Every structure is written in C-alpha cells, then in structure tokens.
Amino acid sequence: MKEDSELILESEVKANSWKIRPCHIYKEEYKDCKSLKARFQQYFVTGDILDCSSWAHDLNDCINFEDKGDYNAGKRVIDNEDDRRSERMKGHTDNDVWRKRKHPPEDWNKPLPEYISKRYENSYLELKNREMKGESPPETSIKEPVYCTIM
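Now predict its structure.
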C-alpha cells in the first residue's frame, strides 16, 4: 500500500500533468539549445553560453514519467516548467510602472464608432460571421474578387 506522501505526490502530479510537454519537445529544445546557431545567439544576447542541461534532465524525467510512471520525475519536470514560466513572466510581474486593473472598464463592450463599423461592414470576416449566423449577406457585398499580388 502506498504511503500518504506518495499519494499526495501522485495526486499533485496528476493534477498538474497538463504542464508537461510531450517528450519530443524537450528533445528538440535540447538539440536547439546545443546547436551552433543557438550558441551564437546566446553569446550575442547574454554575452555567455547558456547551460542546456536542464533540457536534457527534463527529457530524461519526461521519459521516466511517461514510460515508468515515476511521479518524482514528473514533479521535477512540472517544477522546471513553473520556473520557466515565472522567469518568462518576470517582466510582467515586476512591472511597477502601470497600475493593474482589478476589473475591466465599465464601457468595455460599447458599440464601435460608426466610421469603424462602416469600414468593416463588407469585410470578409463580417460576411463569414453573417454566414455562420445563418443571415443573408448584405446587398452591397463584395461582387468582384480581390486579388493580392506580391512582386
């Protein structure tokens, strides 16, 4: 019988398993991190070459989690994904220039000004929207096809 700590770990990993990417993605990230092109980019941006071992560890842990059901490995991958997300969001969370809203503005869904709605009344998206709603297209719909040529 499993101990309480093992059951807690298992339920935590199962609840957060959506954060674990498919294993082939970790392999691609590791290969990309070690590539010559990436090394030039890393050196240009940071002035140093980055450590790619976290991608290799995540690949091994992902394989152990998926193939062997190792919940400790799954927990390590989830923790690394959380760390990556918090690092990526650091600029947003540390921003003290803008005041963050608690709720949207009161008039967030007011109708568009007339000149904007006139401009888009015969657009492709508007015609498709009406088609999906089952409405007939307006009389002034696009009669001639519009072509775009790139030269």
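The chain has a mean pLDDT of 89.
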